[in-house]
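Q: I'm building a small set of examples for a reading group on sequence design. Run inverse folding on the following structure and report the sequence directly after it, with nothing in between.
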């Protein structure tokens, strides 16, 4: 993927293979920490951490929430909802220093932006190295209300890709920094990207600030090039992936150890934003609005794969549970009429029932097969939800085919 943005504003909405590969490559090493600086500089290329997160289940949940933000282009508000649910579920205390709403908003924004921006820049680093570019162009993109003078001074700086400047000054260059670099094959191309090939490198660019231990203008611990130490591996991973949005949602997960992958899958299905998305997806389809072809509920776990293979004989490694746009329409037609469903001892399916699907696939009360289809069943209070999935081998998914709700206690007949 050689397209390059003119700004970094799209990094949360348009994930690309190298960005996702970089982040998922780190998920095999989740590091418990008590302070933000326990993992330094390029060590972040090979491991994932969130300052103060020391428990394995907490790290899994946070990693799954951030991974979804990156691989599916989710919003900060989506991440905040998932983050706060994780806090409540795991009992993590003191993650902001105090419990004020403002501090919570600040901490969640820092975690979200740092991981999304760093993975973006690391992915671009792999693209630039792989793409045969000659120059890198520095582009300033800090907030207009908080411009950093040194970052402004570097805007447009155009230097060969192997210049020492990039070893320490490749963005991100501090907390909240949103600067970025672009690749160019000629000075003329650099100018089209906002570069200034005639601009001199500042005299103080490699002067160390004694307060931070980094060159002036760069925050403590940010004097490295994100992704530089793993660029070749990231490029190799990205080449294996079909570059369309849905495939990125599950790409590279097979490279993780089974135990890590299963923990992340379980965490993913517990995210409130996954349930919300499925509910909204069904609503949008039934309202006739334009939607994505599919919504995923995450990969099958190792145990899921084993059970499905035993039931059907088919190999489903790397498959995920999914809902495509035809499912809500078909299910509404078959099970959307309240009167007809009541006669069957059932109730009509509503969009809210799609929001329960992650729980159905995560911990079904039973799983059987019928005519090659996989049938999952789970009780919710006085109801049983039955979801039928068909195996789509070419798409590597178990796609929702039908769904119904059975009342445990039959409703009284109307007079």
């Amino acid at each position: 993927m050689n397209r390059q943005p003119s700004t970094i504003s799209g990094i949360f909405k348009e994930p690309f293979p190298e960005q996702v590969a970089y982040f998922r490559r780190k998920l095999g090493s989740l590091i418990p920490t008590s302070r933000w600086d326990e993992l330094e500089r390029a060590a972040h290329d090979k491991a994932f951490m969130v300052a103060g997160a020391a428990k394995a289940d907490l790290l899994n949940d946070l990693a799954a929430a951030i991974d979804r933000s990156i691989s599916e282009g989710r919003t900060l508000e989506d991440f905040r909802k998932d983050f706060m649910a994780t806090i409540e579920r795991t009992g993590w205390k003191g993650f902001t220093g105090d419990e004020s709403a403002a501090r919570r908003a600040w901490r969640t924004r820092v975690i979200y932006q740092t991981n999304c921006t760093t993975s973006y820049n690391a992915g671009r680093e792999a693209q630039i190295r792989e793409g045969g570019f000659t120059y890198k162009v520095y582009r300033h993109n800090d907030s207009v209300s908080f411009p950093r003078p040194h970052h402004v001074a570097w805007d447009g700086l155009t230097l060969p890709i192997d210049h020492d400047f990039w070893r320490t000054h490749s963005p991100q260059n501090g907390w909240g920094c949103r600067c970025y670099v672009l690749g160019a094959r000629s000075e003329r191309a650099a100018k089209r990207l906002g570069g200034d090939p005639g601009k001199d490198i500042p005299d103080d660019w490699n002067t160390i600030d004694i307060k931070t231990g980094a060159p002036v203008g760069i925050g403590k611990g940010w004097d490295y090039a994100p992704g530089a130490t793993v660029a070749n591996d990231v490029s190799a991973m990205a080449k294996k992936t079909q570059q369309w949005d849905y495939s990125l949602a599950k790409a590279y997960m097979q490279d993780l150890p089974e135990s890590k992958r299963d923990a992340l899958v379980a965490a993913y299905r517990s995210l409130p934003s996954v349930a919300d998305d499925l509910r909204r997806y069904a609503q949008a389809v039934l309202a006739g609005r334009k939607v994505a072809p599919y919504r995923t509920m995450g990969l099958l776990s190792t145990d899921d794969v084993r059970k499905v293979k035993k039931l059907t004989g088919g190999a489903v490694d790397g498959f995920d549970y999914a809902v495509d746009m035809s499912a809500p329409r078909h299910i509404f037609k078959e099970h959307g009429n309240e009167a007809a469903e009541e006669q069957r001892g059932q109730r009509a399916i509503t969009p809210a029932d799609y929001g329960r699907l992650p729980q159905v696939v995560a911990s079904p009360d039973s799983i059987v097969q019928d005519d090659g289809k996989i049938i999952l069943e789970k009780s919710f209070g006085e109801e049983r939800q039955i979801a039928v999935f068909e195996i789509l081998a070419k798409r590597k998914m178990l796609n929702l085919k039908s769904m119904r709700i059975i009342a445990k206690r039959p409703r009284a007949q109307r007079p």
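Residues 101-130 form the longest helix (30 residues).
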